[in-house]
Amino acid sequence: MVELGDYEQIPPRARLGFIIPSSNRMVEPQVQRYCPDGVVPHFTRIGMTNRHKAPLEVLKPRIVDAAELLGDSKVDVTVLQCTGTSMSGGVDPEREIIQAMAQATGKPAISTASSLMAGLAAVEAKRIVFISESKADHHAEKEAYLREAGLDIAASRGMALPRSDVYCITPPEYWLDCVAEMRDDTVDAYFVSCANIHATYVIDRLEERLNRPVLTSNQVALWCALRTAGVEDDVPELGRLFKRGLVTQAAASAAE
Questions:
Q1: Pair 100, 65: CB distance under 8 Å
Q2: What contacts 129, CB < 8 A, 6 or more positions away?
Q3: Secondary structure percentages of the chain, helix, strand, coil, to 5
Q4: Around Cβ 26, how many Cβ atoms within 10 Å?
């Protein structure tokens, strides 16, 4: 007779939960491609961009409900993975969303915005070049968040791609050339914003060319989710950030 105890169980090293916009087509393939062995990503979609776009406080119940449902799959950390949404209300509303997600799941929660700030702290970067896919108004909204968070933005450019259908079919080489064109040797790092673009695929090439850390939305979210779940693996294709761990609040305060 078959007995369960005769078989070795196969628990994953970690489960990561991602809440993504209904229009996003890049988070899933990129996270699945770069997740270390034994780490399982789980995804759920909600309306929060394009025709669903709304102030963060209006989206909050939808986000918290999605986090609670992801919690049923026993994820170790829940990620609100949308750069524009997580930055749209400023620093304090973004923190409130993270706290509400954590309360709903009983597990740590992060966002693209908080992951970026953790990543910049890890690579010791405060002065950055900022590039996004966005038109002027949405780019300015994200830039305002970055400045409120205390970053020194040496140069900033929104590429004004027309819509999400274009974001996800624009090739990696476009971002390679855009970022390289903005080279500034006075900065500590480069941030390329948007979870629905191919920039993540050229991080290693950009870092070799620019000799600075390059951060993208999907890279920082995966890194922060892994580190929060206790997974310290390096993913060489994802650049210098993946050689770093999370910086504790005490260490950050001491560095300042």
A1: no
A2: 153, 154, 155, 156, 179, 182, 184, 187, 189, 190, 191
A3: 50, 15, 35
A4: 21
Mean pLDDT, the chain, whole residue set: 96
Q: What residue type is assigned to position 187 of the chain? A: V
State the residue for tokens 């970022």. Answer: 179
How much is the average pLDDT of 160-186?
97
* pLDDT tens figures, 83-142: 999 999 999 999 999 999 999 999 999 999 999 999 999 999 999 999 999 999 999 999
- Taking the mean position of all CA atoms in its chain, how far away is CA 224? 8
Q: 36 — alpha (psi -120 to 50), left (phi > 0) or beta? A: beta
Q: Which two tokens stand for residue 78?
A: 């829940």
Distance CA 58, CA 89 (A): 11
CB neighbours of residue 80 within 10 Å: 29
Contact at 8 Å (CB) between 238 and 214? no
